[in-house]
Amino acid sequence: MSRRGTRGLSLIEVLAAMAIFGILATMTNQALLTALKIEPRLEDRRSALAMLQRAVTQIARDLENAVPIAPAEAGWALSLGEDGQEIVFARGGVANPAGLPRSGYQRVAYLWDRDAAALDRRVWTHLTATPRAAPRTDRILSGVTALTFRAYSAETGWRDSWPPAETPEAWPTGLDIVLTTETWGEIRRVVSLP
Questions:
Q1: Domains parsed from the chain with CATH numbers
Q2: What pLDDT does residue 6 have?
Q3: What does the DSSP 8-state code read for residue 183?
Q4: Would you say the pTM of this structure is higher than 0.85?
């Protein structure tokens, strides 16, 4: 019986195949190691983005429920603090699942804590200030390097301060919110008020 039709691999062919396999294995290993090194950084970025989205959503939700009700002692329905770095307003739509004798409105404030580089949300359970009505303060975003609010109305245009001195009961039709963070830079949101 003759073996003319079958031919095996030469030693050089086997060595060349092993060399190619070794190169591919090394490249795959390096790609895997790089992906494993990047994963923690990507998770940090994902977490930071989720926190930013929650904060912006919270602000938008509160402003969508803003109502032009002026607390008796304040005389205004919405106020922008000095340099437009704080906003205080009344918010409706507050759930009362226990049916407690309380209002469906609350006073809400957003302010930039410059020293802590953070955005804080303050909530009072009552519209009017009382000695026992201390606000609950929640830190909703860290790494905030700047925050500004501007109010808009057709009569006054864009203003860094609100309410206008001549009409303290005025209600703006829009707000421009500029939030600057260490991670994401400047984020601008224009919100239409009800």
A1: 59-192 (3.10.610.10)
A2: 63
A3: T
A4: no
